[in-house]
Amino acid sequence: MKLKSLLKNQNAIKILVSILILLFLFKFINLNLLLTSLKDINSIFLLVLLLIPINILLRAFRLTIILNRDKKLISIKDSCYLNLAGMALNIFLPASSGDIAKSYYGYKWHGIKEEMLSANIFDKFMALFSIFFIGSIAAVFMEFYYLSIFSTIIALLFLLIFLYSKIMPWGIINQVLLKLLKIKLDKGKLASSFDLSIKIKLKTFIISIIASLVLYFQFYLICLSFSAQLSFYYVLAVSPLMNLAMLFPLTFNGLGSGEAITMYLFSLINISTTLALTISLISQIVNGLIPGFLGYLIIMRK
Length: 302
Prior knowledge:
- The protein is an all-alpha fold.
- It has one domain.
- The chain has helices at residues 2-25, 31-39, 45-67, 76-92, 98-101, 103-110, 114-141, 145-163, 170-181, 187-192, 198-225, 232-246, 257-267, 273-301.
- The longest helix is centred in the C-terminal third of the chain and has 29 residues, at 273-301.
- The radius of gyration is 19 Å and the shape is globular.
């Protein structure tokens, strides 16, 4: 009951903050242009929709490799269900933490505790690492050297955690889970299950690079669907900043904060704020609400 009450209060605050940010942003857009843009969306958008299951499968494949490192614990289908559940939870939990909180359903559905949690933490960190890694390279190509240095520093911090997993505050993580979910874990087992072989880390890194490229190519296609003129390299270079905005904990799944940073970044390359807001909102629907709704149905069915 405490968790339900906490989530209810948090969601009310996040919805309010997101609405306030969007109301402020709507002051800078042309409503007629927004409606015209939606009406004139071109056929490239069909490719955007086709990439949704590919995104989900890549994420599921990465989690499957992590969890099945010693023996088979889940199937690719189970992993798809878990990732969709995580996307549903992302809508309600702050800073995209649903990707980690889905461990609860992994435990309930498959009886795996420590391995499930540590695998999902590693999975989330690897996804973020790949985004900052790609962003740092693309920023150099675009000659955004300060942005490249920033992305490189963040990527190196993730790399440090991958190489020395003992620096993770497993005791604190355990206490938080005990307080919120009433689940007590073995701290030693939790830490050791995060210690993966170089081979597994390399495999998940390669998959994460592919998944990140597909995800942001999908975003690029959304831009092209609305005839926005920009480089794919620009999208990759600023992707770490867009991702950080989506992690802002006081908004509803990054709604509002994501639109604000997209409008600013697109204004730097002379794309109208109206078009930027439209693209960002459509991206929220494609990568958030659609798979999140599917995840909600899975949670209800199970």
